[in-house]
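Late entry, evening session. Most of the bench is empty. Finally got around to the prediction I had been postponing all week. Sequence below, unchanged from the version circulated by S.P.
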Amino acid sequence: MSRGILLAAGLLLTIAGCRSAPGPARASDAEPAPSPSPAVAPATPAVPAPAADASQQAKPAAAAADPAPAAPLPLRTSLTDPLSDAEQRWIDRAVERLPLRERIAQLVMVWVLGDFTNAADPAYAQVERQIREMGIGGVVMSLGSPIEVAAKVNSMQRAALERDPAIPLLVSSDLEPGLGRLEGGVFVPSLLPAGSATVLPSSMAIGATGSERNARDAGRVTGREAVAIGIHLVFAPVADVNNNPANPVINIRSFGEDPAAVAGMVSAFVSGVQQAGAMATVKHFPGHGDTDTDSHHALPLVPANRAQLDTVELVPFRSAIASGVAGVMSAHIALPAVQDSVTPATLSPAVMDDLLRDELGFSGLAVTDALTMEGIGRGYTTEESAVLAVQAGSDVLLMPREVERTISGVEAAVRRGDISAERIEASLRRLLEWKVRTNAVARPITSLEETRRVVAAPEHLAAARGIAEESITLLRDEASLVPLRDNGAARIVAFVYAPESEITAGRAFLATLRENRDVVTHRITPAASAAQLDSLASTLRAGDDIVVTTHVRRIEGEGRTAVPPHVANWINSLARSRSAVVIAFGNPYVIRQFPSVSSYMVTFALAPSSEAAAARALAGSIPIRGRAPVSLPGFFSKGAGISRGGPE
């Protein structure tokens, strides 16, 4: 669910269909003094299952004098250490004091945009009502600047803590490398940045470095910044094996197409996130890589037989579970090898219980993918999808269309015996345990000073830059154009293709390129006509160094991964008539649209650090050492890459 945002003259503008949603920080709220992030030990081989003390559970719930469930607990220094007696008592008391309807509400997470909104804003008021009156258990934070997200989380946590019983929210967010969920956007028309968390290169870019150390570092940066913003549950990494170049929804979100290599990267990223004190969540179980349908629009079918599942799709998930991953997110896909061709895996007990829990031995938190997606929305009512997801084995119902109907539907299913009360309590206990383990209970309010100290720290930006530089991959260079040779007179003519919404595309690339060369820039959008494109080509001089960049973002819900045909044909024609270097930012598969290109460089990412790294590589300032973690038959193979600079 990637959505881009811009800040214009201090107003948040959405450019990809985001709806406005809740929650400001209140200016009068006092923030606690900053405290250092806890040192968290590496994950143990398996996530411990919630402990159950029968003697404690047998205590009467009438202990009205007992402390509220949100009573302070000591800060934990490890996600995986056994629960203390005090922590177990907190969980037991919380369970005892929640009636059935509120137990179910705890399993619901609602979507919240991370923008500034006034406290009286209707969208914020709705979420606050869901917290205060319904007792929902968590939120999933979307786009916003780090400070605004942290402040809004604090506001919602205070609302949760004012309930009786007072149980803090479990806060989640899609923090995959490269998604930029916590980018603050830019001010227009000046394009001044509005402040951002560290924007890492994508998972596929990390895969191109071939370094699990880079994956672990990326996870650690993600986890540290999440904790500093008040986010406990990180919906990353993607564990899908991208073995289908036509996949419109995974693409560069995957570490690659080799199951073993992806497994290593996934486990390393999980380790980094959880060492930092946040929960990692692998997705999309049991594998969304081998499909050509976007589950935001329809139900994809994964044709793999059981043997392929075992040797390809399930390999990274097995590795992550063995590494102690805290969460698993389901996929809205049909899997005939396990269930049938019409039931989404999210709603299948054969997938979410038999395969995930029993066969793979997962004991952590099972989360549905967004219940607003058409891969699950078609053919099921709000109530049906919620009930079936719980029956299948999910603990968290993510982003249901209608919260009250979701809770009522599950409650009615329990009342009529379709779901047992014990089944609801099991999920509730898992959820509460992770609220304890992530320090959501011990430290529900985030210090904004700590946010400023940790987020986008110099060492985090340096890690992003290092990964970006190591990921640059040169797949073709028949005329040895790379690096460009500066003869002192030639200029660089750069044609930058990007959709109109990508207003900052090419900005970091061009700024870095201009540090040493004269650069003439022409921006091309999908609206450019054939005549306009031809007129641009006519401005070229003999001796010009020609560079074409494509900035193609895979956007969930749109499945847009291609350059418009008329633009692609123009690039192909230009490559036949003139020597040109084409650099693909984002989707590496676009070369099939302009096969005549003889010099082709890929970054597998759209991050500013990747743009700057590509410019340095083009100028010869850094060596090129990346290797493709995916293949495109007829164009390049997995492991392909031409080395330039430094020792061969």
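Two things to note before I forget:
Residues 1-71 have pLDDT under 50 and may be disordered.
The longest strand covers residues 545-552.
Will write this up properly tomorrow.
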